[in-house]
Specification:
The chain is mainly alpha-helical and about 180 residues long. It is built from 7 helices and 4 strands, in the order H-E-H-H-E-H-E-H-H-E-H. It has one domain: P-loop containing nucleotide triphosphate hydrolases (Rossmann fold, 3-Layer(aba) Sandwich), CATH 3.40.50. A two-stranded parallel ribbon has the order 1-2. The chain has a two-stranded parallel sheet with strand order 3-4. The longest helix has 21 residues.
Length: about 180
Amino acid sequence: MKGHPGSGKSTAARAIAAALRCPLLDKDDVRDCTLGLETVAASGVLSDLSYAVLWRVAERQVQLGLSVVIDSPLSRRAHLDALTRLPGALVVIVECHPGDKEEWRRRLEKRGAAVANGGSGDGWHKPKTWEELQRLVEGYQGCTDYEIGDVPRIVVDTTDPEVDAEAIAAKVVGFIRSHLSCRQ
């Protein structure tokens, strides 16, 4: 999965993993577990640790012959490079691109309000307002728009009111199967 926070990655990832009947590995699940370390380590270190754990778990699943869906922003080329180095893995990027910015904003701020109002603690590190998201994206300084080379990619509009998560999953599964048949 690839996309900015609140873009619908997790919703789409859950539907895709269910459709493929394979494990879902979520970077935020790992990152959420680092809350207790926030006082002793820099945020960047904890994010790097989260990715290192995620890649190791993905590698083990691939070694076992399993497919996995990885829910992560995939915001830097180094993250994609780490995935493409996994022996035996066919990497396919599902990029979540919300076409309706107002709907994207509404969803992001709804999630942020839930966390701020005593949610489970999950997502403490995620932007809670549109302004926080804009600062985060500006901080990326364009590094999220990198060249992906020959890695297959499908872009989905996660705010299209005519297309729900299951329809996105069906589209993505068809895309993945078409690339699998080309490899065999």
